Protein 1
Amino acid sequence: MLPDDARIISVDDHVIEHPRVWLDRLPAKYQDRAPRIIRLEDGNDAWLYDGERSGNFALNAVAGKHPRDFGMDPRSYSDMRDGCHDVEARLKDMDIEGTWAQMCFPNMGGFAGSTFWRSKDKELAAACITAYNDFILDEWCAFNPERQIPLCMVPFWDVPAAVKEAERVAAKGAKSITFLEAPHRLGLPSYHTDHWDPLLKVCEEAELPLSVHFGSGGAPAGTAEDGDMFITIALFGLNSMMAMVDLLMSPVFYKFPTLKFVLAEGGIGWIPYLLERTDYSWERHRYWCKINAEQRPSELFDDHIFGCFVSDQTGLNERYQIGVNNILFESDYPHSDCNWPHTRKVLAEQLRDVPDDEARLIVEGNARRIFNFPG
Amino acid sequence: MLPDDARIISVDDHVIEHPRVWLDRLPAKYQDRAPRIIRLEDGNDAWLYDGERSGNFALNAVAGKHPRDFGMDPRSYSDMRDGCHDVEARLKDMDIEGTWAQMCFPNMGGFAGSTFWRSKDKELAAACITAYNDFILDEWCAFNPERQIPLCMVPFWDVPAAVKEAERVAAKGAKSITFLEAPHRLGLPSYHTDHWDPLLKVCEEAELPLSVHFGSGGAPAGTAEDGDMFITIALFGLNSMMAMVDLLMSPVFYKFPTLKFVLAEGGIGWIPYLLERTDYSWERHRYWCKINAEQRPSELFDDHIFGCFVSDQTGLNERYQIGVNNILFESDYPHSDCNWPHTRKVLAEQLRDVPDDEARLIVEGNARRIFNFPG
């Protein structure tokens, strides 16, 4: 059962950046091209950044709406809960849903800063990342450091610059770096190369787990025409599956034996199957494939990879096969997977057959340990 | 436990076509371009078809080899067990591994005949498919119809021709059609269109389940450089996951209420997670996505989709969440996943906690019912 005094920590929520995040922070020379909100003719809001319109809110800001009102149209700030973009209102919404602390991914910036990676002017892009990090550290999380866990971006297209930014935000109190689940799918070097080593080294030394959100390695697995968006949503977990196997087969955890990856929004119910399958394949193919032939993938998993769930009874039933220490909760506020305002109630139902000490780890203890966020 | 008298039926094995499959059957005008075996300079064998060298045996013909000897080099017929290509020897190998009956996918032809789909001369390609079907029906399976279940291809690039061939092989005793898990990934119309309806109608009427082998919808989920082949092998199941969600969200099962799909070599341990996830997503997105909003995906699954496993303790532990009636066994002989000669022993270990009546269904009864193959 979920104990009444357990303080739920969600490790995957989302901030809808308010319109002045970048305008307030970018140097004067970038003001003209700073990300800003424009009002469209239909009355909705959209981001304009370096001449390009990017993204909309839609399913990313639906907390409190009935699924009948879900859709892909852009929305305006006035059509979403204040908690999406206002940290004071956010904490009140967390009180309503029954969560104590949370870690937020960026929205306009992309899960790992990929919006800026795509922009042509990489100097401006790096400045935008610094500005976002200062926003999340100095404004959003500083409002109540006991209840907001800082997750920062790095300019991943430039490893020395990414190292510098990781060191800077670590010194300012960041608890995790949002990174790419599959860099090779963006045309960047894979985890099987040495390319990322300087950054991974800094993250290991500063005890910063890498939070890799599904979709941060490019488009999720798409399928066919009608119902395509739905199919993509149901298949979110496949990206995390690919990331898990790719990382377990890479040299990363041999080079960085205390580095941790957190797979956000991929679910957990598939983990026992995929660990069994990966071990099975490893038994057969370790001799001829260029992979580490000594340590069983499922053993590597225990120390290095952590799964997250919004709602996943299958995974909770199989928690001993996953490892009770490897499971984290996520609310996903204000995205369409979240159960706000019933977050705590839905979670308690899922934990009804889980012993109290295990439930405490899953909803709070693991997050405090993994993200070095003591209560 | 696996009862001693249970006759194991494997629904996913593979025939290595012998060198005369097409030479013996194609009309004289195609003899020059018929698929034939050529001896390479290094002493290995390879197929030559319509001027192109295609495929090799490698991991597809390793039954009985130690994993230390696995690899991607081509091999020769003399470097594989006779059971790969000789049905009499095959039955002896089945006796050794302890299986009673099996259904074989093509090798040179591709899982669903895709080798022929890629060839330029589609008239020759269709003739090759007819020849293969006659081989599998009249030669391979006719040798012992109680122990070989005929699985046939259709020229899927031409729906009227595919309908005709499905009718022809059904009349000759075919029990299943090998088809595409994701036609849209080959650039063909998806299951969300009406394109395939005439073929699906014939399959439904003739009680021919569609056997869709992972990889029949194009390349499996690839990843990065080193260890790439291993990662692909560990991720085989992802193709079946995509196919399952795609089919459940398509109109196919509403149009053809008794049609069945068998997902070969995708494993089963992920099914409870993905059904839960698909239902969860459907609850939220059925209002605005173009999908059927009435029937829960997991309910549709029960009557229409069947999972297969070589070795999957996770899935067997979760069998009630999958449905004991929806699980089929596969040996995968002579591919690299198979446990020959220990097939029955490995299976019995996996079934040690499964009640006898359920074990009987999983290893034999379900296959007999689904493929209309009475004992």
Note: The mean pLDDT of chain A is 92.
Protein 2
Amino acid sequence: MVFSEIVTKEKISLNDAILLEGLPGVGNVGKLAAMHLIEELNAKKCIEIYSSHFPPQVLIDDEGIVNLVNNELYYYNGKGKERDLLFLVGEYQGIDSPGQYDLCQTIISLVKEIGVTTIYTLGGYGLGKLVPEPRVLGAATSKEVVDSFKKAGVEFVDGEPGAGIVGASGLLLGLGKLQNIQGGCLMGETSGYMVDPKSASVVLKSLQKLLGVNINLSELEERAKQVDSITNQLKDIETNDKEDSPDMNYIG
Amino acid sequence: MVFSEIVTKEKISLNDAILLEGLPGVGNVGKLAAMHLIEELNAKKCIEIYSSHFPPQVLIDDEGIVNLVNNELYYYNGKGKERDLLFLVGEYQGIDSPGQYDLCQTIISLVKEIGVTTIYTLGGYGLGKLVPEPRVLGAATSKEVVDSFKKAGVEFVDGEPGAGIVGASGLLLGLGKLQNIQGGCLMGETSGYMVDPKSASVVLKSLQKLLGVNINLSELEERAKQVDSITNQLKDIETNDKEDSPDMNYIG
Amino acid sequence: MVFSEIVTKEKISLNDAILLEGLPGVGNVGKLAAMHLIEELNAKKCIEIYSSHFPPQVLIDDEGIVNLVNNELYYYNGKGKERDLLFLVGEYQGIDSPGQYDLCQTIISLVKEIGVTTIYTLGGYGLGKLVPEPRVLGAATSKEVVDSFKKAGVEFVDGEPGAGIVGASGLLLGLGKLQNIQGGCLMGETSGYMVDPKSASVVLKSLQKLLGVNINLSELEERAKQVDSITNQLKDIETNDKEDSPDMNYIG
Amino acid sequence: MVFSEIVTKEKISLNDAILLEGLPGVGNVGKLAAMHLIEELNAKKCIEIYSSHFPPQVLIDDEGIVNLVNNELYYYNGKGKERDLLFLVGEYQGIDSPGQYDLCQTIISLVKEIGVTTIYTLGGYGLGKLVPEPRVLGAATSKEVVDSFKKAGVEFVDGEPGAGIVGASGLLLGLGKLQNIQGGCLMGETSGYMVDPKSASVVLKSLQKLLGVNINLSELEERAKQVDSITNQLKDIETNDKEDSPDMNYIG
């Protein structure tokens, strides 16, 4: 009953590689960060994952060509001391709980075979309010990863996120831990109200230190400025509204 | 756990055939178009598909006879240069996402064996407003099909439909593409508020050119006129209401 | 993953038997009718059906003893010209669509082996308003059953029920038809607002004629009178309210 | 498609043991009672149960370490005449109905093999109002267990709980009964509005008598006093509000 198809675009083998998960989530922080990294590192697509755990839907590209909803893996061969990287991205996560488990199990098997030994998941941590200076919060499968994250400026706040981590960012770590794959989650603080390139940018700054790669963040930071500018305009309008009509609350 | 039964009413084999999908959807455009074509071409039922992915329900015909909800295939042997056709119609699509995948996979296997090499799916593209002159939008599995659709007057608008195509009309193409079956979707613009024979009629006009068949559309066009007439009466009433009570908005 | 257990309390074999389904539904008409028949005919329990398609729940009897939610079969050996009967009753139907299909398939296999050749399903037809003189509407798997139902006073109204028959009452007929088991559904008209013994009673009157059994309906009719009495009191109160405050609608 | 993993932390074998279920539920009464018992008896973790029937989620401990959502078994070797105990606890029950069945079946198989012959499930019985002196209500798989519960001060009220017992507390008994495992449920009355240590404490008092163990309840009773104190303050505020503004209802 479950449909699943793994399409191998390029057969690859990596060495002691890190899987970087950047599927859609709060503020799309993880997706933005992973997509930016794929572009900057010029990572190449190697695998497409199709599954009935995704919505029954095709997306249409600019040429009018349909493509079934999927998740995709991109790889990057580390230069010098850099570790090999594998990226997990896509338009959707599994649509229900058993589907999430099934997909994450499939992906872990797949990436282990390719040579992945560590999993970093990237996501947003929604605060429900504007975050002028977002921090990067962490969680990890072991004390060692916690320590390495702390050295990269990732903060660990006791009891946060209180609800744990839901979805692929949590499940890949939890299921990976059961299979002795170490890893951790980098969560950029975000309002959760909109796509948040600033949060993605601070996540990437921590990731740079962790991975020892140098990434040009100017494009993301430019987009972050644009979002900031729009947000500030909205705040100004709101403030002016209040100043111009001081009696409104009294009357209303 | 999954119940599935294929009942073969007539054993058939087609040659380089086109599957035309017309299951219920927005404005029932695809269903209206496919049912009209079945009637005009006098296509014959060959297969019934029963599945626990459909609602647990029987329908009752005019004689009081119950029939389990299903999907059905009708065939038409092309005359002269016409290609053979197979129609997929029914009262329901699969009721959930894994069910949609499972049914579409079953149907693709089934029709491939019968001789289908191309899939055209028919549907409506809901605009959320009245559409006096509906266009036919397209999406396809390959550049070749896009070009053939354009020659038949089908329009490709960059980034539309933005949400892609959900349900059997999308999935049959997406899953078919993974199995090297080419195809495309014809979407008649429609308000989405009601069953729309005018939109079905424009879809059929494009389809005539694609298939090289000649179809009498007078019945559909008659129904389209009736719907137009009712819509106009409703608009008149609405307009008069507004004119007769100019102060309502002021007072209210 | 699917849990299913058939517990045989008494091993039985019937001859050309009729399955009478009376699971919960609109107005609990089918359940009331089947339970009344079981009591009047002193039918005996032979099989318990447990399944993960039922709610994860135990019921507690008057002694404080828990019993897992199930469906049960009761049998009655026909006397003289009477046909053997098997009753399907329970507190719940399957909780989702695939579960309904799975349970009905299981039940059909089970009862065929016991000797069932005909299925009559009993239910209510909700009208959304009080029904002083409920009729019994029918639907069936074949012209022959339609004719036999008509002779028993069952009415066939063109296009009713428009939505067909949902749940076990429909599915047992639809799936049975695919396996060449004939049958039909008897639907007592009911408001659908409350448990309706009057509707159950008219269904049983039709059933008596169909089965050629004589059933004492006095208890059901007594309960029907009580429900009528309460309904009339409620109507009186409502009417008086309106009479005492004649201006309410005018003012409001 | 279903993911399930049993991780054995310590291989154990018990003798004629009792399983005590304390998963989350109404007022978290069962969970509080079981966790208190685990602590007081210094029971040790022996098994972790992972399953795709739990939410796709990791929890984060105080060190920032992620752990996949699971259920856990703790054991206690009875001293002298005490029976061996096995505890079932966790942060979640199965998230849907088939998942509940599947997990409970898995757990019953597992604990039977370890040596469990009796199942006591612990829960809350929500009354929807404050309960100054909560009673412990019972339900059981047999007359014998009912009698033993009554001797321990557990009350059986005819027709309560009217809705039966939903979830693991009911299902473990119902499925266990089908496998000839006896057992019963202890339900502490609770408002259902908040976590209720007082209700957990009265459940444990009954359990002490049933198990013949001596448990220090002072910590739970201290927490119960704190909750009582807060509740009383809230009631005072509410009462004062009403007294200070006697006309509010009149005016409003």
Note: Helices of chain D lie at 29-41, 97-114, 143-151, 168-178, 197-211, 218-244, 248-251.
